[in-house]
From TrEMBL, chains A, B:
One Pfam family from the record: Peptidase_M24_C
Domain Peptidase M24: 420-637
Domain Creatinase N-terminal: start-end pairs: 93-213
Superkingdom in the source lineage: Eukaryota
Protein name according to UniProt: Metallopeptidase M24 family protein
Length: 709, 709
């Protein structure tokens, strides 16, 4: 028991389970913005007439997933769903004692299409993060602190809410080991777990001799969802223009193929949707906020195959693909194709942290069959039986190399066209934000009552007017006063505050443009901030500036710089419970790896020239106010007078150009002078005078706010 | 072959091999100061009449180890030693094809007694770090960049010098796998390798089917050394007064015993000499620079046994030990005692990174014998055979817990009396340094020619006048000009520079006092430093100040703060190739773990209240000058206005009080003003004026130097 407790600390295991990919160590922000279910976006069509994925509020309205409108009502059909699900347990082709329903789609996506929101359908709980586990007589839902209140409201009495991270709350595996008699069969849909996650689960439930059953051929929730289940998205794809993509598809494929050859591989399976989109210079709109489309890609040494619903592929996209030698196959054909490769004896490159268990286990068992046929089975199979590593991955054994996708790093290092597009889209985004802030200050000064949701909608209006605008890059976090202290806050029209001049207003938003992706946070006060707020804001800003100004040698992992953003806060005993920076895609996902700037030390990926990271320190005072200041930064090589060690030194170039409400610092310094100077004399008083002078050239940026302050 | 190359990168493996304990990841400085062979200390008796270990120059003179006086002379008996050693290979009770002779003693000590300097005796190479490997027809010596020139001079033509860290230079294991035919027997003295190191060696030579042979009962170098081998040290031990130790021995033993009970152990073997000294409130002088004595300690739940030469234990020490219930046994009885414990079925706590292979393998084989006798052998032995982990440590299997010594962390967190002693000894040390710097400035101003060695000797004179002075805590690094750029520089009377006023002078020194241990570096210029030197000094000082001023939450590992000391240098593309801080013992070893402040990310030990660390950023310009500014800091809990997360916030209190030559910064700023202000006007010119004013209250510290500058 001691060893089990150590291995499965509830907080760690739960976090890992809830946010399988990207892992929490790399993407501290991914949990925050895995919020595909709730609104803000009002329209269903982009400014340029392009079809846009529905906003989550729209989705909720249309599908009755809203907490106020149906499915989650205790009087609804919750019981019937569980009954139907349990009836399926007994079917001879299923034969399981429990079934796990995670939030994921088959691609570890941050934002997912409605038809894949099985956990929400089954449980009635509409939060973005959560895992449901159903046994023959129990049903439990795990979610984290952001969603405790919402889950309490939305779950029926048949469901037990498991508050992940709270003391003594078991992980899903621990719970299964606890409630099931020894030797049960625990079912999952292998498409919804990465291979690594499935192996970890298998390993942990084996402590009670449970067997992990990969239920193939059907998702049990889909079975009970039946005709009411939404259709998979059918939004058309488009070519991402070479003037934005920078590198043509044949060159990208050739780069991947050189990696395959170097590693002695015949093919690689790409399953992350942004990786497919990047590699093929294509974009889609199957999910909200991310310009991606449901698909897999297999790149072989001489061919490449895109697995996608052919209805999504127009003539010009088809031509674009044909030029690059990319064939089409149906989305569903991925598994049989992988089996065909196994039969051919092909050696595959597989990223087992992202490629799902359905694909990898199909490949492995097909390899085994093939080897037996060839009479070589004895040796190889025996080897497999002995190499029982924790992850279950046999490096070297079988015909596969298990390694991070060759696209991940290539995509994170932006080329010149991508950088150009990011810069241009940030300038247009900045123009929209300038219009917005100018408007908002006026409104607040005129005491026009505006809710957090209305403010976010107005911001969207301004953005829509910009060229190339497509949609928001995540649900806008619009938090006034105490709401700003909720790091993952999402206002709803039914339950949100008005934005006034008595407290801080935190606005974290971003957009997808045809040429780039933005993500920016500003925190402002339209009245007189308290001395406490001034001090905290100043220190968050000091941290922001310290990171912005950092210079560092090549090969420095992001976590080394994290302390620069925190040390001003630490000096007065304050801190914030999220990372400082995440990667951002170029006209792609607003969160991407592999780099990060975080207080977690696990991510050793070096920050590299051409990568983009956010710089977003914050401070949150519970039930009071929240502060975050976020810019996006491009990593560039510096031309310094020295280069000790003969290596490159790197620094940051700002992509974001929106004023920061700096007059606070001036106000604060004025207050410091007023309060402290009477106690001083001579040199020290001179020093204080010098160090509390206003920063003149930025004082007048927020003119209205300044008038009030 | 690919996997081997990856596993044994020459630089990593060589560093690990040369500096087995403390490992380089934890103690970047340990390599620098593993310099027990060379002088500075002149006398053989401390100021208070206590017998003091001989300085290394004395040792060299007396034993003919000096490069200028005998053993290493190419015309000497080098050949005969190798011949004698190889004759032993053939003895039936030895029967080996190669023998490895490391630098270590049996306790992984930083400073070792002369009788254990087997590698120096065998090879003639007197540097502190090196490993000799002898086969039937080859002899090779591995050392690192500090010692290439010295080794070239000192080795006879029969030896091949292996320049560790240079491109393409194999590790000892790689070399053995290369030069020996498959299936050879490689011998070591198991006392001179930690168990982990021996297992790693065993594992790496098994690639060529070589067998690691633990040659027990004799050290082959001692056999050929014969009567000429110095006697083991017999210096008397003494009681470390409770007014300095703070906690009595029964309390310390009881603390260790509570750890044993918690971990289900019956006994722990302590083999690090500073851990024995700390736990028993005893001190000795068996080795230079560290107040320790050769011994082992076994703490059982109701008894404790010190394994030491009883001649070293006076009546009052004996009484002190008896009061604490500590029995004496001969030093050599350690192995038989461990075997006796195995026979009793006792479960041992063993720190396999420090306890040597002789002890642990004796315990393990005795356990096996015992289990076989009891009829339980089948199951246990089989289990051992299957659990073939890389380290060879069977956690849980057999009767042992393999974990870091329970003394390590306890010793690093100082109690109030230890802190008091450290503070007091630092004040007396500061007085000696003030006298010294005052004297040196005068001498240099008067243009009296003084060598680096003479300067260090004079410093020792001033220190000797201080109450409670015992000896230096390491060989003084006294480096003028280009010598200061050699991080591990050791001047010798035969070959050292004069200290003048044309370049920087770096002085890194420390002392052992009855109540504490010091370690301080200052860098000064007695003339006019160049603009380059001023800029580099200023940035090193900025880094020193940034770390000094850091505030950080509890549980922060030291590496998180390392960037604070470097970022000023990074901004102009400079850096330094050593860690920023190491732990320091209280009237004990000048380097101790487990904490460190380093750019290496491997040491996750949190910095804790009561720990002491050095703060020593530097910059070294090859063939030109070196800068290092070092204070010792005590980690303390801060009483801040906030404590976000309900945790403690920590900071530093300075122990070292010796002026830093700050007028440089003022000079530099004056120069900045003179050069840049003509190019500026208005606000920017005002800003530059404000930011280049002299720091008035420290300008006059080094009055002479200032007059010159």
């Amino acid at each position: 028991m001691a060893i089990e407790a150590a291995r499965f600390s509830p907080s760690l295991a739960a976090a890992a389970f809830l946010a399988r990919r990207p892992p929490p160590a790399l993407f501290p922000f991914s949990l925050r913005r895995r919020i595909p279910l709730l609104h803000v976006l009002a329209g269903s069509s982009g400014g340029d007439g392009r079809v846009v994925a529905l906003s989550s509020s729209e989705l909720r309205k249309r599908r009755g997933l809203s907490s106020s409108s149906g499915a989650a009502d205790p009087a609804s059909d919750g019981d019937e769903k569980l009954r139907s699900l349990r009836r399926l347990f007994a079917r001879p082709d299923v034969a399981i004692d429990a079934y796990i329903v995670p939030s994921q789609d088959a691609h570890q996506s941050e934002f997912i299409a409605e038809c894949f929101m099985r956990r929400a359908y089954l449980t009635g709980f509409t939060g973005s993060a959560g895992t449901a586990v159903v046994t023959k007589d129990k049903a439990a839902l795990w979610t984290d602190g952001r969603y405790f209140l919402q889950a309490e409201k939305e779950l029926t009495h048949e469901w037990t809410l498991m508050r992940s991270g709270n003391h003594g709350v078991p992980t899903t595996s621990e719970w299964l080991n606890d409630v099931l008699p020894s030797g049960c069969r625990v079912g999952i849909d292998p498409f919804l777990f990465s291979f690594d996650a499935a192996e970890e689960l298998k390993d942990s439930i084996s402590n009670k001799n449970h067997e992990l059953v990969l239920v193939r051929g059907m998702n049990l929730v889909d079975e009970i969802w039946g005709d009411a289940r939404p259709e998979p998205p059918k939004e058309p794809t488009r070519v991402h223009d070479i003037k934005y993509a920078g590198i043509d598809v044949p060159s990208k494929l050739s780069f991947i193929r050189s990696h395959l050859t170097e590693n002695g591989c015949d093919a690689v399976v790409i399953s992350m949707l942004d990786e497919v989109a990047w590699l093929l210079n294509m974009r889609g709109s199957d999910v909200p906020h991310s310009p991606v489309f449901y698909s897999y890609l297999i790149v072989e040494v001489s061919t490449a195959t895109l697995f996608v619903d052919s209805n999504k592929v127009s003539e010009d996209v088809l031509e674009h693909l044909e030029k690059a030698g990319v064939k089409l196959k149906p989305y569903e054909a991925i598994v049989s194709e992988v089996e065909r490769l196994a039969e051919k004896g092909a050696k595959l490159w597989l990223d087992s942290s992202s490629v799902n268990a359905a694909i990898i286990t199909a490949f492995k068992s097909s390899c085994d069959k093939h080897m037996k046929k060839k009479g070589k089975a004895g040796e190889k199979v025996e080897k497999e039986a002995y190499s029982d590593e924790p992850t279950g991955v046999e490096n070297g054994a079988l015909n596969a190399v298990y390694n991070v996708s060759p696209v991940t790093l290539a995509k994170s290092v932006k080329n010149e066209a991508e950088i150009e597009g990011m810069k241009n889209s940030h300038l247009r985004d900045a123009a929209a934000l300038a219009e917005f802030w100018c408007w908002l200050e006026d409104e607040v000064c005129k005491s026009v009552p505006l809710t957090e949701v209305q403010v976010a909608e107005k911001l969207l209006e301004f953005r829509k007017k910009q060229d190339g605008f497509i949609e928001t890059s995540f649900d806008t976090i619009s938090g006034y006063g105490a709401n700003g202290a909720v790091i993952h806050y999402r206002p709803t029209p039914e339950d949100c505050s008005s934005v006034g001049s008595d407290n801080l207003f935190l606005l974290d938003s971003g957009a997808q443009y045809i040429d780039g992706t933005t993500d920016i946070t500003r925190t402002v006060h339209f009245g007189e901030p308290s001395p406490r707020q001034k001090e905290c804001f100043t220190r968050v800003l000091q941290g922001h500036i310290a990171l912005d100004q950092a210079v560092f040698p090549e090969r420095t992992p992001g976590f080394v710089l994290d302390v620069l953003a925190r040390s001003s806060l630490w000096k007065i005993g304050l801190d914030y419970r999220h990372g400082t920076g995440h990667g951002v895609g170029a006209a792609l996902n607003v969160h991407e790896g592999p780099q990060s700037i975080s207080y977690r030390y696990g991510n050793l990926t070096a920050l590299q020239k051409g990568m983009i990271v956010s710089n977003e320190p914050g401070y949150y005072e519970d039930n009071s106010f929240g502060i975050r200041i976020e810019n996006l930064l491009l990593i560039k090589e510096l031309n310094l007078a020295n280069s000790f060690g003969g290596i490159s030194y790197l620094g940051f170039e700002r992509l974001t150009f929106v004023p920061i409400q700096i007059n606070w610092v001036n106000d604060y310094h004025e207050e410091v002078w007023d309060k402290v100077s009477p106690l001083l004399s001579g040199d020290t008083r001179d020093w204080l005078w010098k160090n509390t002078r206003p920063i003149l050239d930025v004082t007048h940026r927020y003119s209205h706010a300044q008038d009030i302050a």
